[in-house]
Fold Methylenetetrahydrofolate reductase.
Amino acid sequence: MKITDLVKQSSKPFISIEIIPPRKGVKLETMFAELEALMRHKPAFMSVTSHAHEWSIEKVDGRDVERMKHKRLDTNAICIAAQARFGVEPTPHIICRGFTKDETEDVLLTLNFHGIENILALRGDGPPTRGGSADAFANERAADLVEQIQLMNQGVYLDPIENADKTDFCIGVAGYPEKHFEAPDMKTDLANLHRKVHAGAHFIITQMFFDNEAFYRFRDEASKIGINVPIIPGIKPLYKREHLDVLPKIFHIKIPQTVRDSIERFSNPDDVYKASIEASVAQCKDLLAHGVPGIHFYSMSVAKPTSDVLKGIKS
């Protein structure tokens, strides 16, 4: 089911999850064992992160040879396997960085062949591609990627194909309640989000945040400039004291002092965990009271914290 149809048809807010593909050398069953616990909560869909190829130059018989490496298992294979095993609606991340438009088109055609309807279109982190002429054939921004997917939805491919079949992807993009760290201000960041929606994005999932007031302001300002697609808040359950320092540095977000105080007063790991989960439950209950269509949980492929938050919401 398309996520836009899910939003329209759901009589109550849904939950969804995001997972990270395991590193090479880790069995898929190891990740699926974690997913089993999350699937008991019947997530409406599951997004799977994607990671750019890594390129290096290595000496082979005295020659410089370009080598492409993958550190994690394939995103799309995980989506297809999880769809077959759990019946969950998969939503793979498709990123600009590290991929040419031709590679993107091939991946999208494979996903379409397997009946995957939802895509999360992102710029991605890291260098654009591997440098050189490849950059000219890569999408630079998420809005460019959305445009390519929409053209495929119209049956328009990179090379003209007569009577080409159309794809039918529902396209999601990222939103930033506290602005993207590269944007000079919120107005500029919202204008960029508007470009992605104008290019054809159907829904928005936000970056993680811990200040609900920032989300409500973001949602209101987005509406004022004509962004009228569903906005789904993305939540990262807290469960470690280290999160209070690490998450703001990595994701360029703020954790309210009240949340910090509720967790930092404890030193015992069990007490920290309990206080952290309680803070996440309170955040989610407030979001639900403010009419969000659903909540997207950044599980990081660790089941227990997200499961405990979901149990707390229902209690």
